Recover the amino acids of this structure.
């Protein structure tokens, strides 16, 4: 869900609850103010592989060994 929708939904919910309170009605859904829910684990325990935390691959590639059968010494050039 995009934050525009969540912000709009939350704002509309706040206005509706505010109107209910000013009319003398009970709050249908009380606010959730508990802040321990989004607390992260210490130490972190990722449940999947995070590629963004891995070191980047090396820009230098190791030299490949020459393939057998393609090595010839050239002592003269024939035209």
């Amino acid at each position: 869900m995009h934050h525009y929708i969540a912000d709009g939904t939350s704002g509309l919910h706040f206005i509706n609850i505010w109107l209910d309170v000013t009319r003398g009605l009970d709050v249908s859904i009380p606010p959730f103010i508990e802040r321990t829910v989004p607390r992260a684990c210490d130490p972190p325990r990722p449940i999947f592989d995070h590629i963004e935390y891995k070191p980047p691959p090396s820009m230098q590639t190791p030299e490949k060994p020459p393939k057998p059968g393609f090595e010839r010494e050239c002592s003269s050039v024939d035209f």
About this structure: The chain has a mean pLDDT of 76. The longest helix spans residues 3-22.
